[in-house]
Amino acid sequence: MKISYNWLKEYLDLKISPEALAHKLTMAGLEVKTVENINRDYVMEVEITSNRADWLSHWGVARETAGVLGKKIKLPKIIKPKLIKTRETLEIDILDKVACPLYTARLLKNIKVKDAPEDIKNKLKSVGINSVNNVVDIANFLLMETGQPLHAFDFDKLSGQKLIVRRAKLGEKITAIDGKTYNLDQGILVIADNKKPVAIAGVMGSKDTEVAKNTKNILLESAYFNPLLVRRACRKLALVSDSSYRFERSVDLGAIDLVSQRAINLIREFSGGDLVAERICKNYKTKKPTIISLDTQKVCEVLGKVISAKVQKRILETLGLEVKLQKNNLKAEIPSYRADLKIEEDLIEEIARIFGYEKINETLPFVKPQQKIFDTFELTKQIKNILVSQNLDQIISYSLLGTSELEKIGLLDNAVQIKNSLSGDFKILRPSFLPGILKAINYNLNRKEKNIRFFEIGKIFSQGKEELSLAVSILGNDYQGVLPEGKVVFPVTLLHLKGIVELVLTKLGINEYLFLEINHGKELIQGSELTLEINNQKIASLGKVSQRVLNRFDIKQNDIYFLQMSLEKLMPFIKLDKKYIKLNLYPVIMRDISLVIEQTINITELSSFLKKLAQGILINVEVADSYLGKHIPPGFKGITLSLTYQAKDHTLSLEELNPLHQALCQELIKTYNLTIR
Amino acid sequence: MPNFDFQALEKEISENIQNINSREALEELKIKYLGRKGLIAQITASIPGLESQEKAFVGQNVNILKNKITQELLEKEKILNSESVKELYNFDNNLPAISHGLGHKHPISLVMEGICDIFTRLGFLVVEGPEIENEHNNFTALNIPLDHPSRDAFDTFYLETPNSKLQTPNLLLRSHTSPSQIRIMQDKKPPLAVVVPGVVYRPDAVDASHSFMFHQIEGLLVDRQVKFSDLKGVLGFFVKEFFGKDVKMRFRPHFFPFTEPSAEVDISCIMCQGKGCSACGRKGWLEILGAGMVHSNVFKAVGYNSKIYNGFAFGMGVERIAMLKYNIDDIRLFFENDLRFLRQF
Questions:
Q1: ipTM, 2 decimals?
Q2: Which of these, B6, B73, B53, B36, lies nearest to B45 by C-alpha position?
Q3: Are A364 and B192 inside 8 Å of each other by CB?
Q4: B interface mutation test: which of A363, A374, A425, A503 has the most B CBs within 10 A?
């Protein structure tokens, strides 16, 4: 909103420069965004917070300025205009009394509609309002001066010479002053004559009842309309005005009649006219003025600054409150235009901001130490550290996706949608990290990156629930180097992704888990898809992304591995406590066995079998080598197992071990379909 | 009958020894010439079968040869040991170093962890909350009435309600992390001090300084006799720790429905040290936080006795702070995940 410096000077003695005033107002809470020098005046663009409807006028800003500068304000005196006794009837029917608790109407006859006086026109120009005619201009002038919206009807255009304040009927229409036609319904409050609506209450009047050059008689409205109704009308009709903006924030009940009187006086002053009728329709009980009781000691305690009771009283008084002080108890009577002041804290804020926030020192509170909990933030921090150490880069992608992206991975069903999304590209809550990661991968592939290792931690959504999850995706080379004799590379495989998972699990103290091979036939992943299970619960899926899916994302590279793990499901299994296990100081003996075995044999099972047989002296079985050569029959593979033997309580001798090892080999041959090379 | 040309032998053996350049080769020659079945042993073994004249000749020369070979092998061994690793192991200093490399945390993560660290040192606990919220936690409990202009500043994404016969409350994506404070206060009794980092959503069109999805960190401290000066002190400490000792802070009165008194908190512009530049709109100050004393209606909503307890709350946009700290000019960079960007942090 624009505020003219010269205009303000009519209400206070301002010696301070406009820039300095702008700074002081800003530092007291009324933000002045710019100060422009226009035609020997200075115009301030102010930003008004939604709780201070009283600032939406020059009177309001003048009152604030008086409070900030500690000055006295002088507002124009309003003398009630003389009512000429006539037989004129003026009927005002308020059918919805709750929506309109106060409606004042004044009938001014025999006026001359012409140009407004220069002073009024200049003031309007300074705040960016165009001049129309003296009546409209005075109404706009008073809107900007007092914050009270007024509306003038051409009385002769009102059918039945009456006004009815009612809800519109479904099907009624109105062509407003902006030239557009609006469809009304019973949710909207209107001002009507005996035939049709002549104004959308609080928003805009009709075009055919507006005051024009040939208007002789006007009906001036000054009223209070329920903020919620005005707000809903504006939303429904997609129509706002300077008037509706103020009604939405609630206007000052105490000013409504006074501003109407001032309007009549001004109009009469410049264009004649006789006040022949007035109606004041009041449908509310005048409440006693709000009095807030404030403990001045409490003010000092809450702020952490000693401000004397006298200073507190003075501050509130310069803001226009009537204050009685008795020792440490302050009683402030709240003027009608300060509906935002309801509780003690509201007064404490007034005192603090006028006193000056900068005058309040900085102190540090004593924060009682609280029990630390291993919570999601700590967990994700640890996981990020582990993954970064594995040369993985963290990405953050949008949680909202478009329908086409979800179709590409076949997860559109059951996805949660947004009602009021701004675009179709961001309409659905992601049920998977895959589209986001593929997008990020594609972006970087297009910029010639060859080895990409991404991870993301965040929420994925299904059925209105969110789940904290981790995604990892790798492609290219896991490791590479140039040695004098040539380049060495190690392209990524699913085993690398499995390795990353195992690292995370190990670091979190999880040692019992299973990787199960699943060929879902689901398009998402091809070849080996692995499922990670802990305690029979599915925790994660990992595999190679199918070429079909990659094509849909325009990705040419084809060795892309993807993992998605639920951290939520992982959390109950995390064990961070460690206890030392006593070292076994007896020497170990290693033995290798080269086997040709069926592809389908589960090595973990075979290892358990061997360990059981060895009755405690076989402490580790590892796959040390693997080969697929011409000599291996189809359906079989060659592996070398490296066995580590160690006794718990003595040094294992070769005489002891050799027969045992031989026996184990024999059992292997007997039990499994394999040969030992 | 072997007729040993010792001179020729010696020459040949010397050459062979000169040409070797590895320890393996040296060992091989050692065995070849001096081993049990080596050359010297063979010659020596043949002596008994020789004529007596030859016996002496061969016996003498084979010893000389043996000593010569031993000597040369020793010298060669010395040379091999003293030669620089460079020649031995073929090292090329022009080749790039080989490393597994370290990955990078996203700059938003770094900033969030850094900010939470500062508050942790002050005694605050870090807690997280859900992204899907209801109107009560996101608005009503925070003293934001649903049908009022003050609600306009908090535009939100609403979820489509599934076809269910049950009356589900209006679910939305939280537009600030403040609802998590409501949850914490409903869960725990005072006193408490928490910071809540997290993702929030606002229906804003995406441009260089706006994103519909971004991150916030909120703080809340509730205890007896908490002061506005405490709020200034805590935030003043944070500002100095995060932005540097020379950065100034100022509080400006403002309005939030959930705090009273309320303030917006500025820092002196880090680009121009407060002198005024394009980054700070020539004002010399950058707004980074909203803060205030918790409104009693909020305490009422969570069942805290506002006669005994009061407290303060604050909130900041992480992207904005990261952009100031790292001199990043476009918020979209955080979500594009360009490796050339991510690798800088």
A1: 0.90
A2: B36
A3: no
A4: A363
